[in-house]
Amino acid sequence: MNRKTIKESDQLQRRKARFAQGLVHSAETALAGLEDDPDLPQGMRYFIDVMRGAFTGDQKGRFSNPSHFQGADNRKVIGTYCLMVPEELIYAAGAIPVRLCGGSYEASSIGDELVPRDTCPVVKASLGFSSLNLISLYQRCDVVIIPTTCDAKRKMGEELAAFTEVWMLEVPHVKESEGSRRQWLEQLYALKKNIEKLTGKRFRGGKIRRKALDAAIKMVGRAQYEARRLYELRRASPPVIPGREAMLAINAYGFDTAPEWTEAMALLNDELKTRRREGRSVYSEHAPRILLAGSPPIFPNWKVPSLLEEMGAVIVADESCMGSRYLYDPVGTTEKSVTDMMVAIAARYLMPCVCPSFAPNEDRLYRLLQMVDEFDINGIVYHVLKGCVIYDFELIRVEKVMKERNIPVLRIETDYSPEDIEQLRTRIEAFVEMLGRKKSKMKRG
Amino acid sequence: MECYGGIDAGSTYIKAAIVNGNGGIQGCKVVPTGIDCRNTAREVFGELCDELGLSPSSIPSVISTGYGRRLIDFASKDVTEIKAHAAGGIRTAPAGKRIGTIIDIGGQDSKVIILDEDGETRNFAMNDKCAAGTGRFLEVLSRVLKVDVENLGPLSLEAKAPCRINSLCAVFAESEVISLLARGKDRADIIAGIHMSLAKRISGMAKRIGVESDVLMTGGGALNPGLVAALEDELMTDIHVAENPQLNGAIGAALIGGNSNGGRG
Amino acid sequence: MGYIRFPERLRHGLGCVKWIFFFIALLIPLWVAYPLFAPAVASDLRQPYCQLCPGNYILPLLVGDINGVTVNFKSATTIVMSMLGLIFSVTLIVGASLKRRFWCPYCPMGLLLSWYRKISFLKLKKDSQKCTMCEACYNACPVEIEQVFKEREKEDVTFSDCTLCLRCIEYCPEDDALRATFLGKTIYRSTSKGFFARQHITPGDREKK
User: What is the ipTM of this complex?
Assistant: First the structure.
């Protein structure tokens, strides 16, 4: 190795170290914002540790834990993006799914150099993570599956191929017709074959069989059951858990394996149930109840959830694809044949998904209205990431529908950088003030 | 009669106001912020009290607002400028007019506030990321044109053929103005064009959330008749200028203090 | 047992079959009663429906009587009718083991009953706001009714092919999205707890892992 290469490699190492340091700092700051809660539920510690492990210390991280990911088992790790990749197929083949959508400012700064300026920060961060290997999670993936949702994700798929093996999963954008649903089912059968090939040596004949698929559906189903319990518990008034904590717990699912996560979530839910019975809460009944909609806040970008709750509101509901939407819809199998299970999986991963990459997307308006009713929402904070055109597009319709219901909507456009925190704070504070006044006026009636 | 104080700690100017229990404005004062917001605020409030023959300790509540609101240590509470301007606008609007929209154009930000029938804030929009919609735009250009900021308004009203300023950015607009001057364009026309540019920016923000009549203008920008006229043209509606527009935030903050202490502001 | 599901175009195409059977069931007896032409054939068609019905051939087997499972050679008409009947029987047995409720979408009785659905005591109701469009009701429906899943406006979703088996409610994962009402009173509603229980995914099953 000549001097130039040694120098370059040194430079690269230093650069990497700089970014890694920044990442650790951001992650710790975000987690500190949660651990500051004087009444943090005991059950939250598990999820905080999962995130801490994934982002700040690979030594403590789950992904260096031999019993899960290395050693005799040698299980494959399959990276996923968005919500459309069926984890049941991955678990049934004995592999482990991880959700790779990036939320780090530092990683997005790296990605900035690799994509157009106006690209959304999620794609920038994901590419940044993959190119510089800031955390071992991305390196550990044997393959990455990217659904063809929005423009940015599709092109990201192309770029990511330079760093890892990429499988594109074609998601029909117009789901209404039977033809598109049939096409989707065929896509999933093809995906199943590819997964089988990847993990092939594990099974006799190398196929995912009925029993394995059934077990996988049940395993993920239990996680969905606990996630649904959390969803229901968040309806309580006064709120039993701050939104920034609940959203983190669900975000952690992407970095954990289903059974472990389910156990921890069950314990958290039991704790929250007790709190609800006791009426125990860090919030008063007067705190404005917010629905956080729009582009997902992805850890460690906990800017908006933290700010909102710092200003005295509580996020009782969210429709983030890293949050409540991640595990909401369950798979409804009617028969026990592989065909039926595949049909049920295909249905679950396409039909109820209200990602704005689908058009028409009227169903999302119904879901938002239903959440407004179920959670007794006072106001909606609509989070738009810079460059996220599709969520911004739908804002117009959301505002219109919410106007009829007399629910104020605040649009917040931001990216991952911490520069605009003060500007956000002013807007959020004014919004929370407005809601608080409205709420007390309504109470006085 | 009890008096209540309000401080609007902006980044360019600090404004102080004192109102009485009936919502009547006792007095107000404006000074540049300088580098020490906290002390300047304390000083200006003290001076205002002196002028009115009051002692600062006799004032039961001082509410602060504006960018530096949290730095005002003698304030009992702080509120956002949205809330303060809404409260102030109701009081400083011309008598008999029900205000539906408040447009505040400050030195470094601008806002649009929509009020409901009870005078409470229903919706708002803010621009604090880009100088092109704020008073700073005018300050920059007044330097280039060698005209005092106060004269920009009256001069613009003399324009016969307003120029179009194409640049979106205040910094690039400066270059554009210089080149217009070099081409021999009349100053009044250029200034009118600048006002149109500002008005377009602000009306864009306002139209996005829906302007409701009547419209009231506050903030330093409301002192500029050229800007008021340009906005009226853009929004195609009459615009009322608040009494003491630059002090609207401080007045509103003081009124909020009065209301919560039993006053009838 | 069976699990074949027909694609949309085929279902729509086959929709007219029940009208064909309906007219057969309506017009032929009229012809038998008033044989304006071919009276010989008409008299042999005394009970046309019964001659075609698989029940005629299959049910006696249940009591050990195999005499019915033959072609009736009395006349040309009866040969044709009994052959058709035997074919229908075999088709029914094979079809029913491949597809649920094989006959229901073509049954003229179903057609008649469906005309009363607007005044039916038992109705199926949907709350569109609660529906997440997950398609579970369509996948569970033995008669492949898609409209319950697709309906976004009306509350009453009792459609013409519906046998009111209420399987859609069983498999709906959202609380109160689908309900069965009897004379307006809800007697059965969808619940997420019920859904998970049916899929054997409740805490009690956690231990079984």
Answer: 0.85
